[in-house]
Design a protein that fits this description.
- This protein is α/β, with parallel strands linked by helices.
- The protein has ten helices and ten strands.
- The protein has a six-stranded mixed sheet, sandwiched between helices. The chain has a four-stranded antiparallel sheet with strand order 2-1-4-5, covered by helices on one side.
- The structure holds adenosine-5'-triphosphate and magnesium ion.
- Adenosine-5'-triphosphate binds next to strand 2 and helix 1.
Length: 263
């Protein structure tokens, strides 16, 4: 019996910036439907890895496959169409439109749907809009942004913008969502509600999540699998329990905290 194909396969990925090897031959898989954490010290290459996976940076060598298809050289919008979206460590939302419109712009198109058919069938268009609005309001509620739905996204605080960016990524109904430090800069309570929402979406829709996070309690309690990077390489992969017990990881990253911070 062979295992099901992972949704993401990264093989010997390399990315240089001038002389620096930010990603230096990294390989790992992300299982379909998993919540996988990508951890490692500052500068380990985690964000660069998300950039490579989402098309915001180009591989110098190696291979990346999304659902069995090579995505090397593809632009972010092409990769998004194949079902992968990401959020940024430094948030990017559309400041000049409302919070709700940021969400509605991310609403998924239905299969076969195109503008002429929507024009020909106002009923179809209304149904689609009502469905998107409901989904948007539900997500905004979860992220504590419902009362801000009509505000310009540019008027939100840094933490709120981050929440909006994550809510917007979830709105796309992509099959895999990459999150770069979803808990950084938001309150612990909201951080937990983000992770709760992720767990629910995985359960309900089978969405796969790959998230970069420095909060080890969150990583160890929420991830099924942990990928550890250091100096551009993957130095370990395993379950949270295996990672906590891995002496190389403890030395490279977790330090003296590894044994203490059991959730
Ligand atoms: N656009 C760039 N140009 C030059 N160097 C870069 C660029 N992006 C990242 N780097 C360098 O590549 C290395 C890896 O950076 P990266 O941002 O991927 O690390 P990270 O693991 O996400 O760290 P952190 O936990 O601090 O976010 C660092 O040394 C960084 O300075
Ligand atoms: Mg980073």
């Amino acid at each position: 019996m062979s295992a099901p194909t992972p949704i993401l396969e990264v093989r010997d990925a390399v990315k240089h910036f001038d002389g620096l090897r930010a990603v230096a031959g990294a390989s790992f898989d992300v299982a379909r439907g998993s919540i996988t954490a990508l951890i490692g010290p500052n500068g380990a290459g985690k964000t660069t890895m998300l950039d490579l996976l989402s098309g915001f940076a180009r591989l110098d060598a190696g291979a990346i496959r999304l659902a069995n298809r090579s995505i090397a050289g593809m632009a972010p919008h092409q990769i998004a169409r194949l079902g992968l979206v990401r959020t940024f460590q430094l948030t990017r939302v559309l400041a000049g439109i409302s919070v709700l419109d940021n969400m509605l712009l991310a609403a998924p198109r239905q299969p076969g749907e195109h503008i002429p058919s929507l024009l020909a069938s106002p009923r179809l268009a209304r149904q689609r809009e009502a469905r998107a609005r409901l989904a948007a309001e539900e997500l905004l509620e979860t992220f504590g942004l419902r009362l801000k739905a009509a505000d310009y996204a540019g008027s939100l605080s840094g933490g709120e913008r981050k929440l909006l960016e994550i809510a917007r990524a979830l709105m796309t109904e992509s099959s895999i969502v990459l999150l770069d430090e979803p808990m950084a800069g938001v309150s612990p309570r909201l951080g937990r509600s983000i992770l709760d929402r992720i767990a629910i979406l995985r359960q309900e829709r089978g969405t796969t999540f790959l998230f970069v996070e420095h909060d080890m309690d969150a990583v160890m309690s929420r991830a099924d699998k942990v990928v550890v990077m250091a100096q551009g390489r993957v130095i370990a992969t395993g379950t949270p329990a295996e990672i906590r017990a891995d002496s190389m990881v403890v030395e490279a990253y977790l330090g003296g905290l590894a044994g203490e911070r059991v959730p």
